[in-house]
Amino acid sequence: MKRRCPMCGQPTDSEVNGDFPFCGERCRWFDLGNWANESYIISELAFDQSLFENLEQDMARTDEETDA
Fold first, then answer.
1. CATH number of the domain bearing residue 17
2. Reduced to 3 states, what is the DSSP secondary structure of residue 39?
3. Which of 6, 22, 29, 50 has a CA-to-CA distance to 40 between 20 and 30 Å?
């Protein structure tokens, strides 16, 4: 797969570059640093919170059936 490095824009190829999708180790570490110092912000939830509520209800029901 061929893409451009999300940090510097250099072309990179997944078949030959172990740091893919980055062009190299420097850009990979720079990206990690951005996450670590909270330069990146996830503006909204990546999942629907109700999915966890339904899962918790299902697990509670299963526990009740097991205890009976």
1. 3.30.50.10
2. coil
3. 50
